[in-house]
Amino acid sequence: MIKRLILVSVLLSMLAACSSTPTKEQDAAAVEDRSGGAVAAAPAQKPQAPAAGPVTKPLQPSTVSANPLKDPANILSKRSIYFELDSNVVREEFKPVVAAHARYLQQNRGVRMTIQGHADERGSREYNLALGQRRADAVKQAMQLLGASAEQIETVSFGEEKPKATGHDEASWAENRRADLAYPND
Amino acid sequence: MNPIVQKIMPAHLLILVWALLCAMFAPVSAAQLRIEVIGGGATQIPVAIVPFRAEDGLAQKLTPVIAANLARSGLFRLVDAGGMSPVPHEPEQVNYPQWRARGADAVVIGAVSKAADGRYDIRFRVLDAAKQTQIAGFVYFATESQLRLTAHRISDVIYERLTGDPGVFATRITYVAKRGSRFELQVADADGFGAQTVLSSNEPIISPAWSPDGNRLAYVSFEDKKPVVYVQSLLTGERRAVANFRGSNSAPAWSPDGRRLAVTLTRDGGSQIYLINADGSGAPQRLTQSAAIDTEANFSPDGQSILFTSDRGGGPQIYRIPVGGGAAQRITFEGSYNVSPRHSPDGKSFTFIQRNGGRFNVAVQDIATRQVQVLTDGGIDESPSFAPNGRVILYATEVRGRGILAAVSSDGRIRQRFTADAGDVREPAWSPVVGK
To answer: Are residues B47 and B112 in the same domain?
Structure first.
């Protein structure tokens, strides 16, 4: 529920940010105020006190205006990269996703992300943890080549422990051989 | 969100809780594992367990626990002990020809009385029915809460005297139970009784490993959205993150002296094996140097070398490396997938998982001869570990899509299944023998 409220408030603030007329911005802020406790989670959205003469405004932090990460129409909202069996090669179809996130990190040097590797359920849990790590590392390496810096990316693995699909067939296993891209405020 | 750490409840409290549950929900379905045995030893020793004098009045009768232990091992055949008149409790009351006629090689007799300090005085004897001599005789003093443990200790004596191997009935097992979306790290008696949850979490827990003194568990918890290695005291419930470096931290293995852990870290890129202090102090010391996956370390009992899984040659195989560093040597060659090595207590062999076709089975390899014996044919077996007497291997498997624990004798003849009342059970490890 709170997440939804935050989402609403972020979307509204996005609208506000896009708007060129100050009145609309204030409208949006007013709506935001009514959303109660959820506002506390997005303090950067608070309206500025009205003042006479020229008004200075701080630049919105990138995490707030980082709506591209959540915009379903933006490639940055794509967060999963799938792998073939026993493979850590980033397939051609996922290269645009990797490239977009790499560019995003390059343009936002303060942003940190975690790449979470996963494996299917077959075989040793610890070896699968290492296989998931290898997939996460492969994506990190690709992103570094495209301009992201190593410090921005932590790679971890969940191995077979957090399956997206719980079936015991190739379709499920394929869903679970992946790397997920996660940002701190996801 | 935070996992709940629990101290192992004092046994008397447990029994109280258990008694309350009995009263409330008879018949009881306590959180325990039931064990069924499949197969049996080539030669089973016929033994008669005579009910002990005055054990009927105890909160926990002893001889049913002893009989169940021996039967479950697959190495004994229980001879009917009923209908003797008088029921023998002392050696002079034993009618040896009658026991021989029933086919018993050994007869166990005993008696319970109240000692002056209020504890129970439990004395028992193991008698050779053919030679008409005493093989063993011991007295135990036990409080009510120690009765079950006493029955396990008596079982250990009988097992050891009649088979020549140490018994492991008075040991414990740990495993991870998944109930719905909840993960519970549990500790139970080796017979599955008295399971207690020592860590409960919404995030996965894997790879529990007993410290050599049996008082601590190392494990991997994902509660911080990444794998972190913890060491938890079973005495106090206190725990500490001992490997929480950038990247993944996993696969803890204790050194035989209990001072160090081998762990798999990715802090320098790739999954590599490091040695750390068991209290988390100091800097990790890198043990393996490869561009491949190196993980699942396991110390040899003499502390001199480590077995581990590596795919440096392509597929995962088992390698050995000196603890002091040096070149790793490949030691498995059969098949394309050999993982999860664990030494036998005598250090002469190791158990591991071998993939054959699409099946994952428990196998044992002799270190000197490299001879491999595949012990199971289940298909989805994982995480094998030896019982401290080396006679049994505990592992995880699946039946109808549900995770269960199973055990196989190291000669492959006897199999046991531990079935839990609910949920998935996985990641078992057998405790060392402590406090004899």
So the answer is: yes
Q: Is the pLDDT of residue B99 over 90?
A: yes
Ranges of each domain in chain A: 2-50, 75-182
B197 and B6 Cβ atoms separated by less than 8 Å: yes
Q: Domain residues for B146?
A: 41-163
Neighboring chain A residues of B248 at a CB cutoff of 8 Å = 129, 133, 155-157
Give yes or no for residue B293 having a pLDDT over 50: yes
Q: Which of B119, B146, B163 is the last residue of a domain?
A: B163
Interface test with B, best of A85, A112, A118, A127 (most B CBs within 10 A): A127
Assess contact for A29 and A16: CB atoms under 8 A. Answer: yes
> Which positions ≥6 away from A1 have C-beta within 8 Å?
none
- How many contacts (CB atoms, under 8 Å) link A and B? 93
Q: Read off the CATH number of the domain in which B71 is found.
A: 3.40.50.10070
Residues in chain B closer than 8 A to A155 (CB atoms): 247-248, 266
Domain tally, chain B = 2
Calpha distance B178→B166 (Å, rounded) = 32
Interface pTM, i.e. ipTM: 0.88
Closest chain A residue to B204, measured at CA: A161
Contact of A111 with A69, CB cutoff 8 Å: no
CB B162 within 8 A of CB B45: yes
Amino acid at B122: I
- Cβ contact (<8 Å) for A129 and B227? yes
Q: What is the pLDDT of residues B226-272, one digit of tens each?
A: 999 999 999 999 999 999 999 999 999 999 999 999 999 999 999 99
Give me the mean pLDDT over the A101-119 stretch: 97
- For residue B59, give both structure tokens: 């909160």
Pair B158, B186 in one domain: no
Q: Across the beta sheet with B182-189, what order do the strands follow?
A: B4-5, B196-201, B182-189, B172-179, B424-430
The whole-number pLDDT of residue B81 equals 93
Smallest Cα distance from B367 to chain A, Å: 21
For residues B156 and B180, membership in a common domain is answered with no
The answer to whether A126 contacts B250, with C-beta atoms less than 8 Å apart, is: yes
A130 in B contact zone (CB under 8 Å): yes
The single-letter code of the amino acid at B220 is: V
* CA distance, residue B148 to nearest chain A CA (Å): 34
Give residue-wise pLDDT tens across range B303-325.
999 999 999 999 999 999 999 98
What's the gap in Å between the CA of B74 and the closest CA on chain A? Answer: 29
With respect to residue B212, please indicate whether it lies within any of the assigned structural domains: yes
Euclidean distance between CA atoms B161 and B46, whole angstroms: 14
Position A1 scores a pLDDT of 47
Residue B357's CATH number: 2.120.10.30
Do B176 and B159 reside in the same domain of the chain?
no
**Could you give the 3-state DSSP secondary structure of residue B209?**
strand
**Contact check, Cβ <8 Å, A127/B204:** no
Question: Using one digit for the tens of pLDDT, what is the confidence trace for B181-234?
Answer: 999 999 999 988 889 999 999 999 999 999 999 999 999 999 999 999 999 999
Contact B319, B350 (CB under 8 A): no
> Are B251 and A124 inside 8 Å of each other by CB?
no
Q: Are residues B155 and B287 in the same domain?
A: no
- Does the pTM of the predicted model rise above 0.80? yes
Which fold does the domain A75-182 belong to in CATH? 60s Ribosomal Protein L30; Chain: A; (3.30.1330)
